[in-house]
Amino acid sequence: MSASRIYVIIPAFNESRSVGRVIRDIPKDLVTEIIVVNNGSSDDTAMVAEDEGATVLTEHRKGYGYACLKGIEYIKPNASKNDIIVFLDGDYSDFPDEMRSLTTPISQNLADMVIGSRANANRESGSMLPQQIFGNWLATTLIKQLYKVSFSDLGPFRAIRWNALQQIDMRDTTFGWTVEMQVKAAKLKLRCIEVPVSYRKRIGVSKVSGTVKGTILAGYKILFTIFKNL
Fold it and tell me: How far apart are CA 130 and CA 132, in angstroms?
């Protein structure tokens, strides 16, 4: 198997206080390029990311999935089948220096997709709100029952081989992004594993779980996506 290039996609909406820390903590000897997708921010997210050496793309359409798809579109012209794409949030809740534990199983051809599980590791108290914990439990329980694949988390910190990502053919533009990837991977019988990752309180307020509206919309979209892809 040819050597893998590793690309990191960081969707970011008003993360000027945290995105610089995220970029600085990424192991530079590991990755080929860090891509920050500025998703309609009204703060200095783009400038901070550029100052830290990241490639900055602009996606004006609001939505986590839109931002991730923009990053994929950018990588596509030069991608090879064994390249690895890492998705990482810009809020500094994950530990970017743990990235190697996600990419190694793929580079060693032991997995096609690796999910960083917050359920199985060191999680700071209060870093996940009760609605997030319940939502993860409900979604992963349904996936196990309906798709016969066991996950413990829908964590956003994840790595996937490029040709597997192309097989999955991601379409979701908002809250269903992570669960769409997992249920489609299950349907395709891709080799999916989880590795424990640490998790801390994010910098700033979550745009999803930090509001009642965001929580309800995310919950609906996640459940809709699980059943839609049956």
Answer: 5
Digit-coded pLDDT (tens) for 116-153: 999 866 788 788 888 888 888 999 999 999 999 999 99
Spatial distance between the Cα atoms of 13 and 207, rounded to a whole number of angstroms: 9
H helical segments located in 79-203: 99-107, 130-147, 162-168, 177-187
Structure tokens at 206: 């979550």
**Cβ-proximal residues to 214 (8 Å cutoff; 6+ apart), any chain:** 206, 207, 208
> Domain tally for the chain?
1
Task: Answer yes or no: is 1 within a domain.
Answer: no
Q: Give the integer Cα–Cα distance in Å for 224 and 144.
A: 16
pLDDT tens readout for residues 34-87 = 999 999 999 999 999 999 999 999 999 999 999 999 999 999 999 999 999 999
The CATH number linked to 194 is 3.90.550.10
Whole-prediction pTM value? 0.92
Tens of pLDDT, residues 96-116 = 999 999 999 999 999 999 999
Question: What would you measure as the largest C-alpha separation in the chain, in angstroms?
Answer: 47
- Is the distance from CB of 116 to CB of 96 less than 8 angstroms? no
CA distance 146 to 80: 32
